[in-house]
Every structure is written in structure tokens, then in C-alpha cells.
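Renewal narrative, Specific Aim 1. Our central claim is that a sequence can be written position by position from structural information alone. The example that follows is taken directly from our test logs and has not been curated for this report. It begins with the C-alpha cells describing the chain, in the order in which they were read.
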């Protein structure tokens, strides 16, 4: 899928394509209300619209990402509703049948996740879970009965922790896709940090990507 991407917006990579693949395999009911958070270029939101969702909302904290996703949706005449804000804040009180997320999940040895610049698209604190944990806590209340959350992240961030958090929130959660991938440029640049944090072995240059599906009964 060819996407407009202006400087400063996260370039769709393997995690994006993996999430789109699982979304396509899952299927989207024709009357579904869909939400894509951390939308970046809007590629996953567009995939949800093309899969048949009746209403698709895309959210990102970056002004550049919001502009990019708006244009990518407009030129495809998909009627995306694009909002700027911190994760679920712009849709507080709404319910969705589908929530998708490709959040920041790259561990950073020193300092909190960046709040400005390109790095905030991937920086996620020492354990990579700064945004993941928030999604696990906040997303369940936005799911309609029978609603589904699809989220992709690296296995380095603790898959069991994600599953436990979602189950504790009353969702049925499981890993529905796994793939071993060579490090991309961001992970390669953080290899020393990852080693110092004890997340990878010396010389390791691969990770497992997982997609987690969580459903509200």
C-alpha cells in the first residue's frame, strides 16, 4: 500500500504489515465501529475501512501524523475520522467494535520516552511498556460487547505481561500471530541498550513480533 509520509512520521514497517495481515484474516463486520490508535500514516485505519468497517477513527498525538493520515484517507475517499490526542483521550466515552494498535514498544535504557520528535513513535521506557500498559488498562472500557482489540508488539516487551493485564481487565486474550524478524534500523540502533537491559543476548539481532487478540465477552 503506497502511503504519503511526511518527515517526522513513523515509516510503516514489518509490524504494520503484520497487523494489517491479521486484521484482514480476522475480518471486520460491515457495521463495525473501528478505532486505530498510534495511527502514524493511517495505514492500519485504512485497512480497517477497506475491510468493511462502517466508521473508522484514527488517533495520533503527532500533528504531522494526523495530517498524513487525513490525506491518506481523503485521497482514497474513505471518510476516516482523524483526531489528534493522547491515546484514547479524543474518543473518551465512545464504544468500538474493533480497536487496533501498533504502539511505541522499543525499550530505552536511559530516560523517559521522548515527548517530541520522531523518537516518540517508538520510545517506550526501560521495559518497552510505557504505552502498552496504558492500552491494556484503558482499551477494555472502550470495547463494545463482543469487541476485539488487535495489538502488535515485540516479544522483548513481555508477551505474558500483556496477556495477564488484558485478562485481568476481563478480556479473553491470546497470541494469534508470531514471527521471528531480523532487527530493523531502530532496534539495530538500540542493540547495546537492549543488551545492557538484559533483553537480548550478546550478538542477538532478531526479535519475535506478536499480535495479540483480546475480546470482550
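The sequence written for that structure reads:
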Amino acid at each position: 500500500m503506497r502511503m504519503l509520509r511526511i518527515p517526522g512520521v513513523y515509516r510503516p514497517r514489518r509490524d504494520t504489515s503484520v497487523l494489517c495481515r491479521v486484521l484482514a484474516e480476522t475480518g471486520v463486520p460491515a457495521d463495525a465501529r473501528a478505532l486505530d490508535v498510534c495511527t502514524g500514516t493511517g495505514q492500519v485505519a485504512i485497512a480497517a475501512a477497506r475491510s468493511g468497517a462502517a466508521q473508522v477513527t484514527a488517533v495520533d498525538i503527532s500533528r504531522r501524523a494526523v495530517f498524513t493520515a487525513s490525506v491518506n484517507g481523503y485521497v482514497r475517499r474513505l471518510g476516516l475520522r482523524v483526531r489528534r490526542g493522547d491515546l484514547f483521550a479524543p474518543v473518551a466515552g465512545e464504544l468500538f467494535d474493533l480497536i487496533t494498535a501498533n504502539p511505541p514498544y522499543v525499550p530505552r535504557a536511559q530516560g523517559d520516552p521522548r515527548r517530541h520528535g520522531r523518537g516518540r513513535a517508538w520510545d517506550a521506557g526501560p521495559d518497552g511498556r510505557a504505552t502498552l500498559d496504558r492500552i491494556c488498562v484503558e482499551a477494555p472500557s472502550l470495547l463494545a460487547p463482543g469487541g476485539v482489540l488487535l495489538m502488535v508488539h515485540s516479544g522483548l516487551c513481555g508477551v505474558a505481561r500483556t496477556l495477564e493485564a488484558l485478562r485481568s481487565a476481563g478480556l479473553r486474550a491470546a497470541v494469534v500471530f508470531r514471527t521471528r524478524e531480523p532487527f530493523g534500523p531502530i532496534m539495530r540502533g538500540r542493540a547495546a541498550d537492549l543488551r545492557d537491559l538484559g533483553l537480548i543476548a550478546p550478538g542477538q539481532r532478531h526479535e519475535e513480533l506478536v499480535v495479540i487478540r483480546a475480546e470482550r465477552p
